[in-house]
Design a protein that fits this description.
Layout (H helix, E strand, L loop, with lengths): L21 H8 L8 H9 L6 E2 L5 E2 L2 H17 L3 H12 L32 E2 H8 L3 H9 L10 E2 L1 H14 L5 H26 L4 H34 L1
Antiparallel strand pairs: 1-2, 3-4
Helix pairs in contact: 5-7, 8-9
Length: about 250
């Protein structure tokens, strides 16, 4: 039963029956975000993305507005690959009544539904600094140093990373929660390098052509080949798992 309290972040006794525990919030969010955890919600609170009310005994109580804000944050992370700093700035701008626009969602759909592709003209997130990358992946310096030592992530210059590093970092962090360490992922990195080399060989003659249209066709072809390569890899993994688990 919710405690009746007064004051604090605009949550009074009249709204007490609408307040949710962190467990109830988790249940609501998991309908859209099955991967979310209580630790994730606490992390977003620590980063200042949401400020739940605290009862005198210290329990967190979330309003429907808090839950909506959390859903916004998770949606922007999932669909736009934005670091938390950018998300916070976006939400603050909305709170000030400013009209702001997010980048279009990155060109990644579900790998295994047969519709995943890389869109040639999809906009990408601007390059990010080391601190933003750490915040996006929710890890510390030691973890990122280890990932770099295994070649999973590499800066484009000192302390600066491209947009794809954010996606890689999140995926490596997620795999780590299942006990997969960077040393286990070296094989994936090696396979990716070999696939990239194969695609490069296919499009190399087109890229050397003097005609700008032909060179542009080479870029489009490389993206299409990358899409097919990823879909093939996902299908092969699923097939292998079915064989082993049946």
């Amino acid at each position: 039963m919710l405690e009746t309290t007064t004051g604090g972040a605009g949550h009074g006794t009249a709204a007490a029956d609408r307040m949710l525990s962190i467990g109830a919030v988790l249940s609501e969010l998991r309908e859209e975000f099955p991967e979310v955890t209580i630790s994730k919600i606490r992390f977003l609170e620590a980063e200042g993305l949401v400020e739940p009310f605290r009862t005198p005994s210290g329990y967190r109580k979330f309003s429907p507005e808090d839950v909506g804000r959390l859903a916004q944050v998770l949606r922007m992370q999932r669909d736009h690959y934005l670091p938390l700093k950018v998300i916070r700035e976006h939400l603050d701008a909305l709170a000030r009544g400013e009209q702001v626009q997010l980048p279009s969602p990155g060109g990644r759909r579900e790998l295994l539904d047969g519709s995943w592709e890389l869109e040639a003209d999809a906009p990408t997130v601007a390059r990010v600094g080391r601190a933003e990358l750490l915040a996006a992946a929710e890890v510390g310096e030691a973890e990122l140093d280890e990932w770099e030592s295994y070649g999973l992530i590499a800066p484009v210059s000192e302390g600066v990373y491209d947009a794809e590093a954010v996606t890689v970092a999140k995926l490596v962090a997620d795999l780590g929660r299942f006990g997969l360490e960077p040393r286990h992922l070296r094989a994936m990195r090696g396979a990716a390098d070999r696939e990239a080399s194969l695609i490069e060989q296919v499009v190399a003659p087109l890229r050397r052509h003097r005609n700008p249209q032909t060179r542009a066709h080479a870029e489009a072809t490389a993206k299409e080949l990358a899409t097919l390569s990823v879909r093939l890899h996902a299908a092969l993994v699923q097939t292998a798992l079915r064989i082993r688990l049946d």
